[in-house]
Write a structure and sequence with these properties.
This protein is mostly helical. It is built from 3 helices and no strands. Helix 1 runs antiparallel to helix 2 and helix 1 runs antiparallel to helix 3. The longest helix is centred in the N-terminal third of the chain and has 63 residues.
Length: 127
């Protein structure tokens, strides 16, 4: 059988549980942010390595394309055409990369869901 508790006791109990919930949410957010940062840093290293190798390969390919084009155009014109094409490609790739960078990868979905559930639970208990 449940004993009757006074309003100050209930208030103190609610304050304790709210503080405990807040600490738990903070721990979850910290863990989730750390996991996100680790995955981003690992991916960043792979992207940098891939870009370095790809940059070297692209340089050789562009020089080869300019030499091939120099068979039908003056060397300066072949270099200009290949450079302009490479600049256009670089611009398009940068724009596509910027468009795909979304802040959602840095959001904390589990924390947001848990806080939402906690607020709903508090709301139901109060009413």
């Amino acid at each position: 059988m449940q004993t009757e508790r006074s309003i100050p006791e209930l208030t103190k109990d609610v304050a304790f549980h709210l503080g405990d919930m807040f600490r738990n949410e903070l721990k979850l957010a910290t863990i989730e942010a750390t996991e996100g940062a680790k995955s981003i840093s690992g991916a960043f290293v792979l992207v940098v390595l891939g870009a370095a190798v790809g940059g070297a390969a692209l340089t050789v390919a562009l020089i080869t394309a300019a030499w091939g084009l120099a068979l039908v155009l003056p060397v300066w014109a072949a270099g200009l055409v290949v450079s302009a094409a490479a600049a256009l490609l670089a611009y398009l790739l940068v724009q596509a990369g910027r468009a795909s960078l979304k802040p959602k990868s840095l959001s904390l979905p589990r924390t947001r869901e848990q806080v939402s559930r906690d607020l709903k639970t508090i709301s139901e208990r109060v009413h």
